[in-house]
Amino acid sequence: MIKRNAENSLKKLAVGFPIVLITGPRQSGKTTLAQHCFAEKPYVTLEDPDTRDYALHDPRSFLAQFPEGAILDEVQRCPDLFSYLQGIVDRDGRMGLFILTGSQQFEGISQSLAGRVGMVHLLPLAQDELLAAGDLPTTLDEFLYKGAYPPIYTRPVEAFQWYANYVSTYLERDVRQLIYVQDLALFQRFLRVCAHHVGQLVNLTQIANDCGISQKTVEAWLSVLEASYLVVRLQPWYRNFNKRLVKTPKLYFYDTGLVCWLLGIREVEQVKFHAMR
To answer: pTM for the complete prediction?
Structure first.
């Protein structure tokens, strides 16, 4: 396991909050970190269909299985658990009882568990984490090509193969959970178009024209990418705060390796001469 900078923050939050939530993109290392820091707690994944069905249909009995708390993985699959967790931690009073992980940004958790949950956002690996592990690529081109998702560095797999599987899994699982998309192939085209707009001002009209969809759909789909921690609309900085609110943001992906794959880059050597470089 590559040591994460968030480890100390996570442990501190578990001392001050009864529930700790680790959010971030799929495969950023949330589960690994949770199990490493809280090895004594039972681990349950809500990706498992039988487990998820039990949690959805009888959340009270499901949670009663864990009087000493647990790690609940991919908790966004069962958002109704939040209300039941509130009652449990209020009665119990212990800190760090439940550790939750999720691959989406949560809107309802701040209401259901206000004051009871500490949050850690775990993004792909930072350069200093890779450096400390002895895995930092030797050239900038290689780093841009590989990106920073942990499996690229901990498994014997080619980056382009891993990202192909990642995008396929994302489309089949996460996109279908967040929004109704009839044509997943069109959504993947939208992903590729967004990759070509990296570092540029967000132009909904241009993206819509490039994809053959409406501006309203572009806005909805961008929100899906943001909720999944794949992209961020970076607001400009001005001393005048009002200007920040009205100026157009720029579009960025959190991970350069994913951008490279979406741009059709399949070898490190292609990075140097690509038009987006």
So the answer is: 0.91
Q: Report d(CA 255, CA 231) in Å as an integer.
A: 8
Q: What is the dihedral of CA 275, 142, 254, 16, to 10 degrees?
A: -170
- The segment(s) of the chain belonging to CATH 3.40.50.300 are 7-121
Locate CATH 1.10.10.10 in the chain. 160-273
Burial of 58 (0-12, 13-18, 19+ CB in 10 A): exposed
CA distance 1 to 122: 15
Cα 246 from Cα 56, distance rounded (Å)? 42
Q: What is the pLDDT along the chain (277 residues), one digit of tens a residue?
A: 899 999 999 999 999 999 999 999 999 999 999 999 999 999 999 999 999 999 999 999 999 999 999 999 999 899 899 999 999 999 999 999 999 999 888 766 767 788 899 999 999 999 999 999 999 999 999 999 999 999 999 999 999 999 999 999 888 788 877 888 888 899 999 999 999 999 999 999 999 999 999 999 999 999 999 999 999 999 888 776 666 565 889 999 999 999 999 999 999 999 998 888 7
Q: List Cβ neighbours of 208 (8 Å cut-off, separation of 6 or more).
A: 214, 215, 217, 218
Cα separation of 270 and 268, whole Å? Answer: 5
* CA–CA dist 238, 83 (Å, integer): 40
CATH annotation of 7-121: 3.40.50.300
| In this structure, CATH architecture of domain 160-273 | Orthogonal Bundle (1.10)
Q: What is the DSSP letter of 210?
A: H
As given in the structure block, the two tokens for residue 79 are 């958002």
- The C-alpha atoms of residue 114 and residue 259 are separated, in whole angstroms, by 36
